[in-house]
Write a structure and sequence with these properties.
By secondary structure, this protein is an alpha/beta fold. Helices cover 42% and strands 18% of the residues. The chain has a domain of 224 residues: 3-Layer(aba) Sandwich (Rossmann fold). The chain is globular.
């Protein structure tokens, strides 16, 4: 009985693969490596000391290939990370996003249905809350999106909800991640940015490593404690562990349920820069620039539901996140 991890060579999937193996689960990874590298699968093996992790370099949009995996293995549940995630690119190439993210999920669900596999953990995003009117954000808040990437997540959530209505044996834990940063403590797994990063922590680490000159802080006139944007940063290892709790939950509950995976604490851009500088003893040159269009002032989770129903909460600190992000980047890129 195995857990199929789609997108398991990627940033969050690889960390989750490690936690699954460490908890005694048998896993199978499928990833077409469109935004990752086979080295991360090798590094999962190194960290866990397990040499025989089945890996398939397949596209989840291919029904024939997915069927082959289900035919040859007894798959009990699926964690579905596979997807494209760059917001800016999704605005420029919406079809690529709708096609990949929707098709891979629909194909996966069809094959799961065929093989009577009905437990799914899905990677959603806090982006489905659009511009929330208040914080902290609860799962019951209204949803809306501002870009095609976000729309694919919301569409998939709705599709999964419908599948659960049609099939009362189906269970889905839809995990809405806030801002995952950090890396595995070994320095072997982390986020490898594709081109110039859009997101804050990858940008900071690229400045720290000397690949980029200066960080632009997008606006210092927000109604926050220091004027810069506030987000709920969560260590990727804490996030990965949340998937194990979600698996346990869906083993015991049918139907569709959404969960916020965040810390419940917001930090500003300047808080992040200061903590990164202090813990790593590095100066990050930065300048204040215009606000980034579409950004909200403050976004952080109310993680109470995850604590109550999943028995999960984040434990690692912002210092851990800044230390581990840098540790990974310097060992990978220096
Ligand atoms: P990632 O790009 O590192 O990992 C995704 C993996 O999926 C990659 O290894 C990629 O090669 C693979 N993939 C993409 N399309 C595929 C397909 N059709 N078939 C097979 N493999 C495919 O991204 P991540 O940060 O690990 O994110 C994982 C999931 O979590 C994504 O669905 C993403 O949208 C979601 N998410 C991420 C964040 C974040 O900030 N990182 C936040 C919210 C939600
Ligand atoms: C991003 C995604 C969002 C996703 C979320 C969680 C974008 C536009 N949005 O949002 O869809 O759900 O991550 O993964 O990519 N900042 C700077 N300078 C930079 C980069 C960022 O000041 O060079 C600021 C931003 O204005 C923001 C904070 O840092 O206040 C965090 O930004 P980012 O890491 O991009 O995450 P989100 O904006 O939350």
């Amino acid at each position: 009985m195995a857990v199929l991890v789609t997108g398991g060579a990627g940033f969050i999937g690889s960390h989750t693969a490690v936690e699954l193996i460490n908890s005694g689960k048998e896993i199978i990874i499928v990833d077409n490596l469109c935004n990752s590298n086979i080295q991360s699968v090798e590094n999962i093996k190194k960290i866990t000391n397990i040499n025989n992790i089945p890996f398939f370099e397949y596209d989840c949009c291919c029904k024939k290939k997915l069927t082959e995996i289900f035919q040859k293995n007894h798959i009990e549940s699926v964690i579905h990370f596979a997807g494209l995630k760059a917001v800016g690119e999704s605005v420029e190439q919406p079809l690529k996003y709708y096609s990949n993210n929707l098709k891979s999920t629909l194909t996966l669900c069809e094959v799961m249905n065929k093989f009577n596999c009905n437990k799914l953990v899905f990677s959603s995003s806090a982006t489905v809350y659009g511009s929330p009117e208040t914080v902290p954000i609860k799962e019951t808040f209204p949803t809306s999106t501002t870009n095609p990437y976000g729309t694919t997540k919301l569409m998939i959530e709705n599709i999964l909800k419908d599948i659960c209505i049609a099939n009362p044996n189906f269970s889905v834990a839809c995990l809405r991640y806030f801002n995952p940063i950090g890396a595995h403590q070994s320095g072997l797994l982390g986020e490898v940015p594709n081109g110039i990063p859009n997101n804050l922590m990858p940008y900071i680490t690229q400045v720290a490593v000397g690949k980029l000159k200066i960080l632009s802080v997008f606006g210092n006139d927000y109604p926050t404690h220091d004027g810069t944007g506030v987000r709920d940063y969560i260590h990727v290892v804490d996030l990965a562990k949340g998937h194990l709790n979600a698996l346990t939950y869906i083993e015991n509950h049918c139907g569709f349920e959404t969960f916020n995976l965040g810390t419940g604490v917001g930090y500003s851009v300047l808080d992040i820069i200061k903590t990164f500088e202090e813990i790593n003893n590095i100066t990050i040159p930065y300048k204040i620039t215009e606000r980034r269009p579409g950004d909200v002032a403050v976004c952080y989770a109310d993680p109470t539901k995850s604590k109550d129903l999943l028995n999960w909460q984040a434990n690692l600190s912002l210092k851990d996140m800044c230390r581990d992000s840098w540790n990974f980047t310097k060992s990978t890129f220096k």
